Amino acid sequence: MKIDMYSKLITVCAVFTFSSTLHYEGVSGAKILISAIYGEGSHFLAASAIGESLLKRGHEVTFLISNAYDHRAKDPKYDKFSFEIFNHSVPAERVQRIMNAANHVAFQESNDQFSNLTKSIMELTGQSCKNVITDRALMRRLKAMDAIMMDISWPCGIYIKAALQKDREIPKDLKMIANSPTTLWSGFVSASGSPFNFAYMPETMTGFTNRMNFLQRLKNIVQSILIQASIDSSMLYSFRKMEREVGLQNIVDPFYGYTDFDLYLSNIHFSSDFPVPMVPNLISVGGLTAKPAGRLQNELEEFVQSSGDHGVIVFTLGTYLASITTIRPEIVTMFAEAFRRLPQKVIWQLKELPDWELPSNVKAMPWLPQNDLLGHPKTRVFMYQGGNNGFQEACYHGVPIVVIPLQGDQYDVAARIEARGLGKKIEKLELNADIIYDTLTEVINNPSYNEVADKVSAIYKDQPMSAPDRAAFWIEHVIKFGGAYMRSPANDLTFIQYHLIDVYAFLTAIVVVFLAVVYYTLKFCVSLCCRMIGRGSSGKSKTE
Length: 544
Prior knowledge:
Layout: H1 2-25, E1 31-35, H2 41-56, E2 60-66, H3 71-74, E3 82-86, H4 92-100, H5 102-105, H6 112-133, H7 136-142, E4 147-151, H8 156-166, E5 175-180, H9 186-191, H10 214-246, E6 263-266, E7 282-284, H11 298-305, E8 312-315, H12 324-327, H13 329-340, E9 345-349, E10 362-365, H14 370-374, E11 379-384, H15 388-397, E12 401-403, H16 410-420, E13 423-425, H17 433-445, H18 447-461, H19 467-481, H20 495-498, H21 501-543
Parallel strand pairs: 1-2, 1-4, 2-3, 4-5, 5-6, 6-7, 8-9, 8-11, 9-10, 11-12, 12-13
Helix pairs in contact: 2-19, 6-8, 6-10, 13-17, 15-18
C-alpha cells in the first residue's frame, strides 16, 4: 500500500515537473492572427500551411479574410481555424473581378493592361485596410492577439497594430512577422537588414539568374528603382490616403516599409534557389505547401494507372487561369493539339470544357490535388505557369518542370528552373503546338532533368523539420523572446553611413591632402633647385 502511494506521489511530481518544463521551454495557447491578402490563391495556401503547424503546437490561429472569399471559413479543411471576415466598401463580386483580371492580361504582350490592373489592386488594398481598421467591433476582438503574421503583398497588419497602439488597445507587446511567399524582393531583404547586392542577386520580376552580364546588372538596378517608384506611386499613395482618413500618420516608410518586424519568413529553399546572405531574423521556409503525397480518388488513380510506362503529365496555369477556355479558347486548342500527339496521359486543370471533345489521353478537372499528383510515381513532368508554391512542390517530389511564365515573379521562378537544370522554359508569346510537344518530349526523355530533380528532392527532404514546422518554431520563438536580439542595425543607419560614404570620403580626403602635400613639396623642391642652379650659373658668368 505504501509503495503504491509513493508511486502515485512520484508520478504526480513528475507530471508537475514535466509541465513546468514545458511551460518554460515552450509557449502554448498564443493567439496568432494571419493575414494572407484576402484569403484566396497561393498566398493563402502557403500561410495556411504555417497555420496548421501552429495549431499542432497548441496555438490559436485566426485568419483575417475578405467577405469576397468567405468560402474559406466554410471549407471543412480549415475548420480548425478561426476566421475574422471583413466587408469591403464595394460589392464582393467586384473584388473578385479585380483579383481575377489576371486572366485577361496574362497572355498580353503589352504591360499597359498589367500596370492598370496593378494600380486597381493597390487602390483596393488601401481601401480594404481602411474597412478593417474602422470596424470597431473587429478591432476590439483583434486586441487579444499575441502576434500578427502578415503577407507583404498587403501591409494592413502594420496598420492594425498602429491603430491598436493609438487607441491604447494593446496591453502587451504585439509581435509582428512578415511573410513573403514569392521569390526574393530587394525591398523585403533590405527591410530585414540583410544586404542585397545587385551584382549577383536578381531583383524580382527580372527573370535573371545570379550570373549577370553588365547589361543585366544595369537592368537589375533599374528594375529595383522602377519597382520602388511603382510602390510609392500606387500602394503607398493608397495607404497614405487611408492614413489621413483614419488619423494615422507615416506608418510605412517609403523605402523600408517593413522594418518594424520581429521575424521575416521567405518561401525559398537554397537547393533550388540562389544562395544569398541572410541575417538571423530572415528565415528560409521554402516548401510550405510541399508534403508527402496522399491517396488519389479512385477515378483519378485509375486514369493515372492507365498511362502504363509512359506516365502522366500534370498541367495547370494556376487557379486564376483555370477558366482560360472562356477567355482565350485558341490557347486551349493549341495545348490540346500538342497533347494529342503525346503517348503520356495528361491531367489538365480546366474549369470549363470547350465545346469540342478533348483528346482521349486528356483528363480535365476544375481543381487538381497538385501536391498528391506530383508525388505520384507515374508523374513524368509538371507543366505550369511558374508559381512559387508549385515550384517548391515539384522540387520536393523530384519532378522535372516545363514552365510558361506569364507575369510577376513567375519569370524569376523560370530562371531558377533553367539555371538549376530542373527543366525548360517556353516563352508565352512563342507558344504553338510544336514547341509545346517538343519541349515536353525533351524534358521527359532527357535523363539529366530527372537526375537533377532527384538530387534537389533529396536535399529538400534531408532536413530536421518541415518548412511549416520551421516557420512555426520561429514564430513561437519570437513570441517567447522577441526578435530584437536578431535584428540587424543596418536600417538604423543612414544611407551615407550604411554605404560608408563618409568613411570613403574621409579616406579620399586624406589621400588627396597627402598627394597635394607631396606635389607641392616636390614642386617647391624643384623650384628651389632651379633657383640654386640659376644662381650658380649667374655667379659663374660674372667670374668669367
